[in-house]
Specification:
By secondary structure, the protein is of the alpha/beta class. The protein is built from 12 helices and 12 strands. Strands 4-3-2-6-7-8-9-10-11-12 form a 10-stranded mixed sheet. Strands 1-5 form a two-stranded antiparallel sheet. Helix 9 links the parallel strand 10 and strand 11. The chain is globular.
């Protein structure tokens, strides 16, 4: 049946440190399935019942409040069969970076960061096994392994996740700072359908340390080179280096050109560029500076550039409008 609905709510699962949500389209407005979650097994029949209720609401045009203005809503013929095509594993919060733009740590607040790095969380494996036993993973299900920092997961956990995903004949995507090298990520890039994304956000060590607020510039590029080497013989593997533009920090040609030089030097063929979340929310309806326009046009001129596929429609329109002076 054709109706207006959302793929995230129908077929995605986000496993957070303290809740289970249907989507992460917005950080502060989440469609939540289970609050105060701490790793226990769940009632899957309850999940399916809630999902059916959501479908009926959508068919009637009665969307939940958090969904009403979401750009992911679209009208098409939806598959109403229960199951996941996308699972985000984000239950752990420890991370080796302290990025100034981090949404999770409220822009890198020291008190929040300390809490995240010491917070006790749960083992995600029982929940994933429960979903597997109930055949809840659809063919080619995509797993996003975040954190925190997935390279810092407890011993054996990341390897288990990689093996689990490949046993489901799914694909896996790692979101990493790249400071700590992981043999599990390297092995996944060698043998299966896998992606790695690392945000470097700078061309020079000085600005890298200003943005990340940790030392790790040389280690990141060294590790990225190893990951790219591991992926070369696997046509199903991708390594993407991200550059999040932060106005008045790294929105200049010195950083942009040095970043591209470093990417080319280690054989990178995939780059993703975005604009910092908080700044974007406050300035999307305003003209942009000449610096920012020049940097965006420069990145756009690189043949291997791709803008983030999950940028909302108003941001895409903003980019298109402002790239032409």
């Amino acid at each position: 049946m054709k109706f207006k609905c959302c793929e995230w709510a129908l077929a995605h699962l986000v496993i957070n440190s303290d809740d289970l949500t249907y989507c992460c389209a917005s950080f502060d407005k989440k469609l939540t399935f289970k609050e105060n979650y701490h790793g226990e097994l769940i009632d899957i029949d309850e999940y399916i019942k809630n999902r059916e209720l959501f479908i009926e609401q959508c068919k009637q045009g009665n969307f939940p409040e958090v969904c009403k203005d979401c750009p992911t809503l679209e009208e098409r013929d939806w598959d109403e069969t229960p199951g996941f095509i996308d699972v985000s594993v984000s239950n752990r919060t420890k991370c080796s970076c302290n990025c100034t733009y981090c949404i999770i740590s409220s822009g890198g607040r020291e008190d929040v960061k300390k809490d995240l790095n010491t917070r006790q969380t749960y083992d995600v494996r029982p929940l994933l096994n429960q979903f597997r036993e109930k055949n809840m993973f659809k063919p080619n299900c995509h797993f996003i392994i975040g954190g925190g920092e997935c390279a810092e997961y407890p011993k054996g956990e990341l390897k288990w996740l990689v093996d689990f995903v490949f046993e489901q004949k799914g694909s896996i995507e790692f979101l990493s700072a790249g400071i700590k090298f992981s043999d599990d990520i390297k092995n996944a890039l060698r043998k299966g359908k896998s992606k790695l994304k690392v945000s470097v956000d700078a061309g020079t060590k000085k600005v890298y340390e200003q943005v990340k607020r940790v030392k790790g510039y040389d280690a990141v590029w060294k590790n990225l080179k190893k990951y790219i080497e591991a992926s070369k013989k696997n046509p199903n593997a991708e390594v993407t280096i991200k550059y999040i533009i932060i106005p008045n920090v790294n929105d200049n040609m010195t950083e942009a050109t040095e970043f591209i030089k470093r990417c080319n030097k280690i054989g990178c063929t995939r780059i993703e560029v975005n604009v910092e979340f908080f700044w974007m929310n406050e300035n999307w309806d305003k003209p942009i500076s000449d610096n920012l326009r020049e940097v965006l046009l420069y990145f756009q001129s690189q043949s291997n550039l791709c803008f983030s596929s999950n940028i909302s429609s108003h941001v895409r329109n903003w980019l298109e409008k402002n790239l032409v002076k």
